[in-house]
Amino acid sequence: MKKVAFVCVHNSCRSQISEALGKYLASDVFESYSAGTETKPHINADAIRLMKEIYGIDMEANGQYSKTLKDIPQMDLYISMGCNVSCPFIGKEFDDNWKLEDPTGKSDEEFRKVIKQIETNIIELKNTLK
After folding, report:
1. Is the CB of residue 2 less than 8 Å from the CB of residue 129?
2. H/E/C letters for each residue in 67-107?
């Protein structure tokens, strides 16, 4: 089974949502991880709240926390969440860039749009890797 890393700078929002939705929607096809080039003390509170509300997923209770690339195993695929803030350096080219806007500090509606796009991307990735 392939291992997929979802990567952004702080590993606190988009990449964490991607890891959670990857586990929720595609664990039969690939293993999901997330990481950043830096960490934050906590996962984004709005991401935690909305993932519980929409999917019933409690990212923190499921063991997710902000981590760096050195904290995860070697991956088969590395996917960037988007370099609209700053692009993390991982020592190689990303296999894909999802070009997602960072919803941090924005409305629930903006957060929901990003979460829905991540869900769509996870399903497409799952279908590609089957």
Report:
1. yes
2. CEHHHCCCCCEEEECCCCCCCCCCCCCCCEECCCCCCCCCC
Using alpha carbons only, what angle is made at residue 96 by residues 92 and 98, rounded to the nearest 5 degrees? 130
Identify the pLDDT of residue 82: 83
Range of the domain at 29: 2-129
Structural domains in the chain (count): 1
Left if phi > 0, otherwise alpha if psi is -120 to 50, otherwise beta: which for 66? beta
How many Cβ atoms are within 10 Å of 30's Cβ, its own excluded?
22
Cα(74)–Cα(43) distance, integer angstroms? 23
CATH of the domain at 102: 3.40.50.2300
Q: Report the C-alpha gap between 76 and 62 in whole angstroms.
A: 23
51-94: pLDDT as tens digits: 999 999 999 999 999 999 999 999 999 999 986 555 666 777 78
pLDDT of 1 above 90: yes
Cβ 78 vs Cβ 95: under 8 Å: yes
